[in-house]
Design a protein that fits this description.
Layout lengths: L3 E4 L14 E4 L1 H14 L4 E4 L3 H6 L2 H7 L3 E5 L7 E5 L2 E5 L8 E5 L2 E7 L2 E2 L5 H19 L6 E8 L2 H16 L2 E6 L5 E3 L3
Parallel strand pairs: 3-6, 8-10, 10-11
Antiparallel strand pairs: 1-2, 2-9, 3-7, 4-5, 5-6, 7-8, 11-12
C-alpha cells in the first residue's frame, strides 16, 4: 500500500500539477514514514498521535498491515487506534493532543516529531503556500515544546518548495536544536544538513 493519495484536483487547480492527478502525502502518511524511519534507526517502540481528521484521510491500519505489522490491541470508538507489532517493533496509534505527532526513545534520547502533509506534485500557488506553512507550523510547534533534553524534528513532504525553505531555515533551526526531515513519495526520509 502506498503512502500517496491520488486525487482529482478541483476546477481551480486543474493543470497546475505534474501528471494525471494530484499526489497528496497526508500528515498521517508522513507520520508513518517517519515512524518507519525511526525503527530503522533502532527504535523499538514508537507512538503516533494523529487527530481524528488525519485518520479519516489515510487508512493507517491498512498501511501498517501491508508493512508486516500485526494488530495486537484495539482502542478508541472507531477501532483505528491500537497497538501493532512487527519483529519486536511496537507502534502505538493513539489520538491524544499535546504529546507530539510521533515520539520515541532511541539509545536513551527522547525524540519528538511534528509532521505536516501536502501535495507533492503541485505548482499551484495556494498549494505551495500550504507546503511552506506546514513546515513553518511544524517548526513553530517544536519551538513551544515543553520537553527538555529532547531531539526535536520537523517532518514534511519533499517538494522543491519545502527543500528550498528547509535549507533556508536549517541554520536557525539548528540554533534551537530543531532538525528538519523531508519525506519523499516512496516514504524515504532525508535529514536536511549543512
Amino acid at each position: 500500500m502506498d503512502l500517496i493519495s491520488r486525487r482529482n484536483p478541483p476546477l481551480n487547480r486543474v493543470g497546475s500539477h505534474d501528471g494525471d492527478s494530484e499526489l497528496h502525502l497526508s500528515e498521517a502518511g508522513v507520520m508513518l514514514a517517519v515512524a518507519d524511519w525511526l525503527f530503522s534507526l533502532g527504535a523499538v517502540e514508537v507512538r503516533v498521535h494523529p487527530d481524528g481528521l488525519h485518520m479519516k484521510h489515510f487508512d493507517m491500519p491498512a498501511w501498517l498491515d501491508a508493512q508486516g505489522f500485526e494488530r495486537v490491541s484495539t482502542t478508541g470508538k472507531r477501532g483505528i487506534s491500537g497497538t501493532f507489532e512487527r519483529n519486536g517493533q511496537r507502534l502505538t496509534i493513539h489520538s491524544q493532543p499535546g504529546l507530539g505527532d510521533v515520539v520515541t526513545t532511541i539509545d536513551g534520547v527522547d525524540i519528538e516529531i511534528e509532521a505536516k502533509g501536502g501535495c507533492i506534485n503541485t505548482r499551484h500557488p495556494g498549494q505551495l503556500s500550504k507546503l511552506r506553512k506546514g513546515l513553518h507550523e511544524a517548526v513553530g510547534q517544536l519551538m513551544s515544546s515543553p520537553r527538555k533534553d529532547c531531539r526535536l524534528i520537523a517532518a514534511v513532504p519533499r517538494h522543491s518548495e519545502t527543500e528550498r525553505l528547509a535549507e533556508r531555515l536549517n541554520a536557525r533551526c539548528a540554533l534551537a536544536s530543531i532538525e528538519i526531515v523531508l519525506v519523499d513519495r516512496d516514504g524515504n526520509v532525508g535529514l536536511i544538513t549543512g
